[in-house]
Amino acid sequence: MRRILFLAFDRMQLLDLVGPADVFDAATRALGAAPGIDTAQALEVARRRLDDQTGYRVLVATPDGQPVRAASGVQIGADAAFDDLPADGIDTIMVSGGLFVDEALEDGRLVATLRRLAPAARRTASVCSGALVLAAAGLLDGRRATAHWAAGRTLKERHPDVRLQPDRIFVRDGSVLTSAGVTAGMDLALALVEEDHGPEVARIVAR
From first to last of its 207 residues, what are the pLDDT tens digits of the chain? Predict the structure, then answer.
């Protein structure tokens, strides 16, 4: 079971987290033919993948381990505090963005946690202006990347070594992935599901 860690913070863009999280949940259900997945394709996948450890476990961490409130006002619960996260056992790190990402950057704990955890993770990804967090942690130095169109100029001004590709839905450069605006995070998550479990499972999830 692959552990997907979302690093959340106050006034983040809600869909940056719940969109990709629902993609990973749907993939886990498709792989196990859980309730809510009732197609011949899903059942065939389940026959081939009977291991109940197949799929994803989504975890949410916040600076203090307390709930945070998204920009929309919706409260998001937490599984752990940043400081309590182990440096190993995480498959994929996902960093959200939003209009208030600079507040999270000023806090400092988000960037410090990302720097500590990213080297041991198989891959690290951002949604929307979360690319600014990856860049602040040094993960985008010399790499190709994209971001929400409104964050592109800021990203380039602050981090001129980033090879910005503003017209892409998502960009992968080695083990680091970035995506454009909020719904592009779901496209990115689908691409990760396809990488892990093949195009058939990704098509089931997309449907």
Answer: 899 999 999 999 999 999 999 999 999 988 875 555 555 555 565 555 544 457 999 999 999 999 999 999 999 999 999 999 998 999 999 999 999 999 999 999 999 999 999 999 999 999 999 999 999 999 999 999 999 999 999 999 999 999 999 999 999 999 999 999 889 999 999 999 999 999 999 999 999
Nearest-angstrom CA–CA distance, 178 and 95:
9
Query: CA 98 to CA 184: how far, in whole Å?
Result: 13
Sequence ranges of the domains in the chain: 2-206
The residues annotated with a catalytic role in the active site are: 128
Rounded Cα gap, residues 202 and 10, in angstroms: 31
In the three-class reduction of DSSP (H, G, I as helix; E, B as strand; rest coil), residue 114 is classed as helix
* pTM for this predicted structure: 0.89
Superfamily in which the 2-206 domain is placed by CATH: Class I glutamine amidotransferase (GATase) domain (3.40.50.880)
